[in-house]
Amino acid sequence: MSIKQFRLSSQAKDQLIRLKTKTGIEHWNILCRWAFCLSLREPTPPTPIDVPADSNVELTWHTFGGEHHELYMALLKERCVRDGLEPTDRVLSRQFRLHLHRGVGYLATPNAIRSIGDILSLSTSAAS
After folding, report:
1. How far apart are the C-alpha atoms of 119 and 51, rounded to whole Å?
2. What is residue 12's predicted lDDT score, i.e. its pLDDT?
3. I want to staple 46 with a disulfide (CB 3.0 to 4.6 A). Which of 8, 11, 23, 98 is the partner?
4. Count of domains for the chain
5. C-alpha angle 17-80-3 in degrees, rounded to nearest 5
6. Given this model, what pLDDT does residue 1 score?
């Protein structure tokens, strides 16, 4: 297993707190899954920036992915290969953080998400 645990940035934590309030989704891992998948859907790789791990929110990979943690890892590996990256443990960890934080940023766009229905609409509208 290449990713055992990860810590969110303070900015992502604050954004997720607001999203939890707006959507009623209580658990970090559920919102993080939406964010991760939203970023994976984008055709371009995330911008390679340094994402600080400066919050007190830490999740294990199994908590993030739940019973489907292997599927999320397979999606991440496939995306790395598609982006021309060797799926080493280091690369997977970095790309996961980049995708997760990019997706949180998308979800936290002002007025984009006002309810859980907006998350569903966002996911179905992009698939069209």
Report:
1. 24
2. 97
3. 98
4. 1
5. 55
6. 54
Domain membership of residue 52 as a residue range: 5-127
User: Residue 112: what pLDDT?
Assistant: 74
Per-residue pLDDT, 46: 97
Phi, psi of 33 (to 5 degrees): -65, -45
Low-confidence ranges of the chain (pLDDT < 70): 1, 123-128
- Position 2 scores a pLDDT of 79
CB distance 23 to 119 below 8 Å: yes
CATH number of the domain where residue 18 is located: 1.10.1220.160
